[in-house]
Amino acid sequence: MTNYNERKTNIAQPRDTCTDEREDAAMKKTRRRIVCLLLTFVILGGSFAMGETGFYSEQANEAWYQEMLQNGILAPGNNYRLKKLIQRAQDGEEITVAAIGGSITEGAGAKEYKECYAARFFRGFAARYGKDGGRNVRLVNAGVGGTPSPFGLMRYQRDVVDRVQDPDGLPDLVVIEFSVNDWGEPTKHRAFESLVKTILQQPNEPAVILLFAVFQNGFNLQGELKSIGDAYGLMMVSIKDAAFPHVGKEWTAKEFFHDEYHPTSLGHGVMADCLLYAVDAAAARETDAQDASLDVSPAYGTDFMGLITLYGSGDYPENVTLDRGGFARDDMSSYTNLPVGRVGGINFSRDSADPNAPLTFKAVFKKLLIAWRATNDARFGEAEILVDGKVKRTLKGAADKWGQSEVILLWDSKDSLKHTVEIRMAEGSETKRFTITAISYVP
Hints:
Oligomer: single chain
Structural class: alpha+beta
Number of helices: 11
Strand content: 15-25%
Order of helices and strands: HHEHEHHEHEHEHEHHHEEEEEEEEEE
Distance between the termini: 34 Å
Number of strands: 16
Shape: globular
């Protein structure tokens, strides 16, 4: 994995030729800090106390922290949707804030769930913009550890939309956080962009924020994913640009990072502050004249839009044939977490004593994604996946797996054709266990 621990260095210039330039730069920096402080005063109405209506950190009023928050706005985005949403929230309409991402969104590293960035951001947003203390604002957190954006797209309907309690049944503000989970994901950012556009095309016109978290070594994928946000005029918030330069200065690595991947409660709080500041700044601006156009050329591709996900519930489209064969069980020990519960719901699982009969799936499709439980448990064996009678992939666990749902791209075509897919235990694994989390296809 590439190490993105990059730091800018200031190159000293000869004093006799650059004194004026340095003084201009210093004046610009001073003016910038003043603007940050004035913006914060305006945003907070000059009277917000620390807490959910202010910012999480006790350092929030310090100049460096305010400059950090401003640096976190990688792109302010078109604010047309956000300001309409804020007005609806202030009017008392039922509003749902949703977050979808990996383990950081789930809350990993925070001492308790209420201290994770998603929960803090929700409370701050509700207190600022909701009515009667934000009682009309709800949170749906769909963070799942160890998973990339293709799995997020696979489960968006179940883990986000189906959990919304508002009358329209759709989320109103969605934060997407996969920038540290999408390294090597099989769709090469097409699933990420398909998820973004799927959400943007909802009839309630939700606002979308791209959140770029960061690892302790400075790695994230914002350089690649930023083009998606640019294409659709999205607000983008970078923790790498905001907080990371202060690790080793205002904070030690142990204070900000729980481990090499996840922030501490302090780190989560800073992430929430960066999101809140970006939203506050957008709310303080004049409303853009019109919404950003969705009729744009894709940055990577949107060919995974319309993805249909099948679980083990038996509720399948009429043109789909699915015989579970020996995978007729539901693996109750599959991954669970606090915000989502059992990830994926009813799955396709077999036990060592089950018949050695393949799962068979027949449908017309052009794309096919399979999510499976990757584990280091020796009781689990290897499975082969065949398309139209030919083995396409063999899936097996490894020592570094811990039960997360991994995703493979099994079929990727421009043409929709009828195919037969079989999932069977490989030779030597006939008496082993195996779990398929979900099957997704684009017709």
